[in-house]
Write a structure and sequence with these properties.
Elements lengths: L2 H21 L5 H64 L1
Helix pairs in contact: 1-2
């Protein structure tokens, strides 16, 4: 499951829970608002952590691909130089 889907699920779940909490809350408005404020803060922090992990994962994968491409390019350049040198040697004979 992708991280984006998980993050959207967390947000949707938090919104649904908050709405149901407001609709069925036996507490007074001030208490309900305070509870929602605290819970939303925790959900926002959790979402920030998941987003940060997502960014870290993407960055790691990007760096790995970049390193792999660099290695392949260096190998191709090396082979091209060797082939050029071999062609010059064969031509001079």
């Amino acid at each position: 499951m992708s991280t984006v889907k998980v993050a959207l699920g967390v947000v949707a779940g938090a919104a649904t829970g908050a709405l149901l909490g407001i609709l069925f809350a036996p507490a007074k408005g001030a208490v309900t608002r305070r509870t929602i404020y605290r819970k939303s803060g925790r959900e926002v922090d959790a979402l920030k952590d998941k987003f940060s992990d997502f960014i870290d994962t993407i960055t790691e994968k990007f760096e790995k691909v970049k390193d792999d491409v660099t290695d392949l390019a260096e190998e191709a350049i090396s082979k091209a130089e060797a082939a050029e040198k071999e062609a010059k040697t064969a031509k001079s004979k």
